[in-house]
Amino acid sequence: MLWNNLQQTVELGWDFYLPVILFVGLIAMAVPVWASIGSAAILMLVMSGDLPLSLVGESLFSGIDAFALTAVPLFILTGDVLVRTGLSRKFLNVAEALTCWAKGGFGSATVLVCGMFAAISGSDAAGAAAVGRMTIARLVESGYPRPYACALVAAGACTGILIPPSIAYIIIGLVLGISASTLFLAALIPGLAILIAILVTNIVVNRIYGYEGGGNLSFGEWFTNLRRALASDWYAFIVPGIIFYGIFSGRLTPTEAGATAVVVTIIMGFLLGTLKLSDFPAMLVSSAKVNGIILPIIAFSAPLAEALAIMGVPQGFVTAVTSLTEDPYVLILLMIGILIAAGCVMETTPNIVILAPILKPLADNIGMNEIQFCIMMITALGVGFITPPLGLNLFVVSGITGESILKIAARAVPFVFFMLLVVLLIAYVPAISTTLLPDIYK
């Protein structure tokens, strides 16, 4: 019924159907997402005649000609430098000392270090790989089944795009014309809520199955361990401190914070003797590969978004949906369902650039705050990282451990459930996203 209403509203023809079929077919054949989007966009423009092909090149350039996007490669590079300098292991030492008093302490430490890494790199895949290599073997030694240990790391790494600074918030801010700094501030409480949900899930599962013992330290022993860890590894927190203070105090833009973080991390690596000039080619190539996946998607999505807008698809979608129901609670559930389904089969960046312009008018129609909509969208898409068939974090941890993706996905079900509860809270309680914002954004 929804599809029929959309057809009647927008009068969709083969100039829409054929590009969609082409896009789905190319994705099914494992053609890179940017090439699939670009091919569909060009075919749509050729068939519809809505935008001269001579302007496609200009549209591609304008899609990535934004100062805010400079922050993306900087945060990616910061994450690479962090791993190569060994500072990420300092986070693990402090996290372990902080949670060693509790039963299941190392599992909790694993989740915390995922959050710490997220607060610097802004990337979930990088966090899953870095933290997975450090912790999965030890989690298994502590008593966790290997599939569950992999699921724990995969879930914790979802915070990579949910805890600011986040590449996903930079991209959605660019697509919808919203300040990335504002989105970072709004995402702080929701990101921490997801982190806490993952921590609580692990504690509950560990209590039920008794995977990991521990938790027998007295307060004095715990405090001594924590003090020693902080005394020896405190300097690792200089980098996230600079990022958070710079962005949230308004003294630095996200791009400036990313640049400062890269420089400071490199200097610390040289001072510690863990970074050499010979490490730079590999670091730069690794960061360039990740950046080379993100930016072409954004560039080729620009003409596609223009074609869809000219054809009236976003407005037609709103009219079609509201003709079925105007209940805002039902419409929010519909948006969440679309986002989770999309997150299961496609990465965050293409989902943002394709779905954000289509769903935002619907959110505006029901009176949802635009900041709250962005937080809800990114958080719902984040659940897709541990949901088959294409949960990115599942593939990352499977790749570094050799564990079956299906086994990992099965053990990730409790994390998906509790993360979805947080998504619903974000969607229905605006204060979670807007409490820290100035009144002008509420």
TrEMBL record:
Membrane topology: Multi-pass membrane protein
Compartment(s) of residence: Cell inner membrane
Keywords recorded for this protein, A-Z: Cell inner membrane, Cell membrane, Membrane, Transmembrane, Transmembrane helix, Transport
GO CC annotations on file: plasma membrane
InterPro entries linked: DctM (IPR010656), TRAP_DctM (IPR004681)
Single GO molecular function: transmembrane transporter activity
TM regions (residue ranges): 20-46, 66-87, 107-131, 152-178, 184-205, 234-252, 258-278, 290-311, 331-359, 371-392, 412-437
Origin: domain of life: Bacteria
Residues covered by the TRAP C4-dicarboxylate transport system permease DctM subunit domain: 20-432
Family of the protein in this entry: Belongs to the TRAP transporter large permease family.
Function statement: Part of the tripartite ATP-independent periplasmic (TRAP) transport system.
Subunit architecture: The complex comprises the extracytoplasmic solute receptor protein and the two transmembrane proteins.
Protein's name in the database: TRAP transporter large permease protein
Annotated source species: Shimia thalassica
Gene: siaT_3
